[in-house]
Amino acid sequence: MTSVLETGLKPAWSWLGVDIYRIFHLAAVFGLTCVLLKVIQLYQRRQELIKAFSRFPSHPTHWLYGHVHELLQEGEVLNKVERWSQKYPYAFPLWFGSFSAFLNITHPDYAKVLFARGDPKDNVTYRHIVPWIGKGLLVLHGPKWYQHRKLLTPGFHYDVLKPYVPLIADSTKVMLDKWEQLIAQEKSVELFEHVSLMTLDSIMKCAFSYQSNCQTDRENSYIQAVFDLSYLVHHRLRIFPYHNDLVYWLSPHGFQFRKACQLAHHHTDTVIRERKESLKDEREREKVQKKRHLDFLDILLHAKDENGAGLSDEDVRAEVDTFMFEGHDTTASGISWLLYCMALYPEHQQRCREEIKEILGDRNTIQWDDLGKMTYSSMCIKESLRLYPPVPGVSRQLSKSITFHDGRTLPEEEHATSRASSKHTMRKGEENIFTLQRYEMTAGKKT
Ligand code: HEM
């Protein structure tokens, strides 16, 4: 006979004939097994990583944080990695926590071996931008990368690039006019935002024939979204807990990112749709092409391989978003650091000014043919890029094990990043000096 107590404890759904306690028991066993399997998997991964990187000298690492706790201070990351690069002059592992590490290559001899192989881009560095820029040239690899690359190459023909010069000159004038007004206020100005808006304005005009007026109209929601996305991508990279998708997705920054992505995609889709519509009509197409230069978007929409296959709508959008990001963020960073170098070294600034004035003569705007004559200015740009590379490293995931010239190997599947800066390969004390001597030979001119 069932006691009153037992009847009272019976769950309400016992009439279903299901033993709820048994279900809980099974769920607990299942959960624990999953946790145990994950722990074993993580342990094995850690052992694999320790073994893989044991052949390379390493900065002391914490068992849990790896090197992360040493790289938290904003603005210090690159300096610290630079110091370690000098201490370990070929390559050293960088640990992000206990279960993730990559080989940080610091010597050109090592970098040459890596880049001679054509391994795919690693899926860690660019992972955070994919929800925005999709799978365009920057993240693709293998046959699809090759197909896109071949289809887009005509977009970089001189005849396509030449008409971009006056458009970039116009955008630059807008920026300089703004600075003229700001100078009058006699306050310091953060240049990077101004330069970013100028490069964004340029890429939109050149590649997509889109007059955004973003330098003067900051209310434009698309510009705001692209600007927010660029900031949020950099921000996420710096905050290590945000590297986890779930943590980021649930965070206020993750919410902001998703919202900005939606806005940006909506805009890109509209631009592509409108252009497609206008190209449908033969007469309209002829009219449009006569009126303006063939831009990057036209090339994307007309691209066909030897089998007559073009890019899908998704691929077109990925390339548009990729170029929108890559085409303004890197150049903004490069130009801002160049201006910094010119401010630090007024003697070089003066030489550049004289050179450009001489090339311009009576004109007040740069033309395509002028670019090749700017020998001194080009050397300054190269030196600034060497000291402050806008893309500080290039990462690859190894498709097969790699052996360097000194016999050290790194197994398949591991990540290797080659640093863009070569300061540590220079003589001590010379690495941070802004000097043009290293380019004079190639420029064929003594300064
Ligand atoms: C100072 C300016 C720039 C720097 C320092 C820079 C740097 C780089 C680097 C290092 C890569 C190789 C990435 C990798 O292999 O993992 C790359 C790739 C790429 N960049 Fe730039 N870039 C600059 C300007 C631009 C501009 C203006 C555009 C577009 C208009 C652009 C579009 C791309 C694209 C599409 C890729 C992928 C290429 C491929 O894999 O085929 N970049 N860039």
From TrEMBL:
Transmembrane feature ranges: 20-40
GO MF terms held by the record: heme binding; iron ion binding; monooxygenase activity; oxidoreductase activity, acting on paired donors, with incorporation or reduction of molecular oxygen
Pfam (any one): p450
Compositionally biased spans, kind Basic and acidic residues: 406-417
SUPFAM superfamilies registered for this protein in UniProt: Cytochrome P450 (SSF48264)
Cofactor (UniProt): heme
Protein name: Cytochrome P450
Species for this entry: Mauremys mutica
